[in-house]
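Take a sample.
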Amino acid sequence: MRPRLALTVRRMVADSAKGPRPSLTETLFTLFLRLVAVASLWFALQYWAMLTGFSFNGQGRFDLLPPAWKAAYTALAVLFPVAGVGLWLLVSWGPVIWLVAAATEIVMHEAYPSVFGIDRTLVFMHVAIAVVFVLFRIALFIQRRRQARTVRTDSP
């Protein structure tokens, strides 16, 4: 029975649709998005731990926070896990939601330092991730443009 199963599997593989293999840039971009997704989920867990009282000895619980912190931390506790899932699944809205969450944190720490404090490391990290994302998108655009140019049949 085993040889027959192996033959069936070989036939199934031969019938499978074979698409083009992803380039190194596409593979690295996927890895980058997945790493950002894991980081986003980590941020989400930190916000939820703080809001529910599991961190900071319960001093960051939702009912003990000032109104500005309640609004910001609740929004971030929702945005970061959604962004993490979107980035992990490689869907188009993942980076958009991450950008909204990162921009919220940047505005919190840069525009309102008297309320939320200054966290230059966090701001630098978000800006660096955004720059790397833009560089990957530019590289992918150039790569796809070159591929489209070489595939055309009507070029002189």
The first helix runs from residue 2 to 15.
